[in-house]
Every structure is written in structure tokens, then in C-alpha cells.
Amino acid sequence: xxxxxxxxxxxxxKPVAQVGNSKVLNFNVAADKHFTAKNGEKVTETTWFECAxxxxxxxxxxxxxGTQVTIQGEVSARAYIDKEDPKKALAILTCTVEIIEFQxxxxxxxx
Length: 111
Known about the structure:
By secondary structure, the chain is mainly beta.
């Protein structure tokens, strides 16, 4: 099991799904890494995580696009082959959320 901690902004939220007796909320988080390249150029690299939060109905309503969160959870990777271009393969990072902390209000709430 690989557990990691990352901070990022929620990019999308899917509707709550019922899986047997459990409820899950799937959402994506964009985590940015900022650094300066050797040529002096400032660079931002974004890593997307597909997150799943299980049985936390009291938290679901607060997970909105633009909200900054810190996530701790079990991360795994899976391969995705583009159906239109079979030579194009992507790695998708998934995270089963164990702990979630809110870092800010959503961008729309700040206005």
C-alpha cells in the first residue's frame, strides 16, 4: 500500500454513487508543483488525482469545484490506452481518500 499526502484544487465532482450499502463521491484534484528550470523559466507541473471518498455523507456537500484540499490516502496507478490513438498511453493516479482537510473556501465563495 502506498499512502501519500497532497494539496490541490478540486477540478470536478461527480454525483454521489450508491455501491451496495455504501456511498462514494468521486472527484478530481489538481496538485501543482512549482519550480524554476535551469534556464531560469518558472514552471508549473500539474498532476491530476482521481479521488474516491467513501461513506462521508456529512462531507460530500462541501466538496465543490475550486475548493483547495489536502488529501491523505492510498494511491495507485493504472494505464489508460486512448481508443482513438492506441499508441497513446496515459497513467492515471487514483486515490482512496482516508483523510481530507479543507484549506480554503471555493473560488466562487471568496468573491
